[in-house]
Design goal:
- Helix content is 30%, strand content 23%.
- The protein is built from 14 helices and 22 strands.
- The chain has a 9-stranded mixed beta sheet, sandwiched between helices.
- The longest helix has 19 residues.
């Protein structure tokens, strides 16, 4: 079944400019928000501009919620749940958009700083599934927070301003890489070799002062110089790394891609390209029948674990708070609400790549320009670990998307025995709610620089709006 290219719906002029304008807002967001903390701060700011109130404040005051109220709740600064209260009782269920805002990257270890041959480096531990060789010889930036023992928080963002220094992982020159080039791709660069170079200048003579003789006898003067810089600029001691969360990400802005500027290349499309239109869809919602929810979570790339992942009880607990504030709390109401809910697990899919056609089955692959993608199931080899959405739910979605003239396609993540992947869909499915994966096709998925189609982004936004309104 051939799906028509969605660009045909947007001829040059005002219609196409609408697509481009939405994509430009997303491009700026992607450039500014490279960690889950930064994404959460951005969405909270946007939510408050749209009239959403902090649910924590409402809980503290024991105020009541009514139809039309808009609220949000942060999950420890690394995730967010936003709601628009509907006219129907909460136990009738919600329409939910769920996406994740973490992305593959490298994290600094807790004791990262060391010196070797008068070069200062930071030791890292990669996060999520990456091809390690893709992360060498790139300009990298440091984003995150340092929390001191007095509870004060220092925000770190180095490498994005044009006047900032950047950092990087070195690679072996081709002239000496004979043995390296014979290794399997998974071994060409080892995880413990992903250390980033941050300095090569020893502590300056003028800084040594009265203790010059003692300092000259010390080792690791390059490391000492880095510690001096950290102390002067951030008030940070070496031990403060123990309570720091600093992520190493590609430096630089997301860019328009292609002569026709129909695409965007950037870091973190997976899964911010779904999180952004999901949030923008609920931000535009008005007077819903059913309560609407947008759930943006952390830790999907490492199994959705921990207090800020989808496996936590955060979402369930927040629903219980909503039930209480709408004056209808009971354990049975919460359970009925979750069971009667419908959800789009908004996550990316692997776009067909004509450079690597052998891993895809063309009839069941996703393509750039064909709109939002439905993955009825993900998983790997025999649908292992998959949420397999029902035919009834798929039929309902087809009906509403056809009515609203939204371009959509269906896909699998590669050939049957080729591989596969997971999302948060199965966790939402554990509540017995109707849920299916849907999102944007991505090229170079999990690489430092990924690529998406602007029209797919816009059709996903339209699809999310239709789902919230009609499901």
């Amino acid at each position: 079944m051939e799906r028509e290219n969605a660009w045909k719906k947007y001829p040059k002029g005002k219609k196409r400019q609408t697509v481009m304008d939405f994509a430009e807002g997303y491009r700026k967001f992607l450039s500014q928000c490279k960690t889950e903390r930064e994404c959460t701060s951005f969405f909270i700011s946007e939510a408050e501009k749209k009239g959403f109130k902090n649910l924590a404040d409402i809980i503290a005051k024991n105020e009541k919620l009514k139809a039309g109220d808009k609220v949000y709740l942060s999950n420890r600064g690394k995730g967010l749940a936003a709601f628009v209260i509907g006219k129907e009782p909460l136990e009738n269920g919600m329409n939910i958009l769920g996406a994740h805002i973490d992305s593959p990257r490298m994290d600094l270890k807790q004791n990262p700083l060391y010196e070797d041959t008068e070069m200062a480096l930071l030791d890292t531990h990669y996060y999520g599934g990456i091809k390690k060789y893709q992360w060498v010889t790139l300009p990298l930036a440091l984003h995150g927070v340092v929390v001191k023992t007095d509870g004060s928080v220092v925000t770190v963002n180095i490498g994005e301003d044009p006047f900032d220094p950047v950092f990087g992982v070195s690679d072996l020159l081709i002239h000496l890489a004979g043995e390296q080039m014979d290794k399997k791709a998974s071994k060409v660069v080892e995880g413990e070799a992903l250390d980033i170079l941050v300095g090569s200048m020893p502590l300056d003579e003028a800084v040594k002062g009265k203790d010059k003789e003692e300092t000259e006898n010390k080792k690791d003067l390059v490391k000492q110089n880095i510690l001096r810089i950290l102390k002067e600029k951030y008030g940070m001691e070496e031990e403060d790394f123990l309570s720091a969360e600093i992520e190493v990400v590609p430096a630089g802005e997301a860019r328009n891609y292609g002569f026709d500027e129909s695409m965007i290349m950037g870091y973190g499309h997976d899964d911010r390209v779904c999180a952004y239109p999901s949030f923008m869809a609920i931000a535009e919602a008005k007077a819903p029948k059913r309560t609407l929810a947008c759930l943006l979570v952390d830790k999907e790339e490492i199994g959705s674990v921990g207090a800020t992942g989808m496996e936590s009880r955060f979402f369930e607990n927040t629903v219980a708070e909503l039930a209480n504030l709408t004056g209808d709390y009971s354990e049975l109401v919460v359970r009925r609400c979750l069971t009667n809910s419908k959800a789009l697990s908004s996550d990316v899919s692997a776009a067909f790549d004509p450079n690597y056609p052998s891993v895809s089955e063309k009839k069941n692959a996703c393509y750039f320009g064909k709109g939002i993608v439905f993955n009825k199931y993900t998983g790997s080899r025999g649908k292992s670990g998959s949420n397999d959405a029902s035919a009834e739910f798929m039929g309902e979605l087809r009906g509403m998307f056809d009515k609203d003239e939204i371009s959509y396609q269906t896909a699998e993540l590669g050939k049957v025995d080729q591989g596969g992947g997971g999302t948060i869909a199965y966790i939402l499915g554990n509540y017995s709610m109707l849920v299916i994966d849907s999102g944007v096709g991505v090229l170079n998925m999990h690489a430092p620089w990924e690529i998406i189609s602007k029209v797919d982004l816009y059709e996903s936004f339209r699809g999310y709006c239709s789902f919230l309104k009609n499901a």
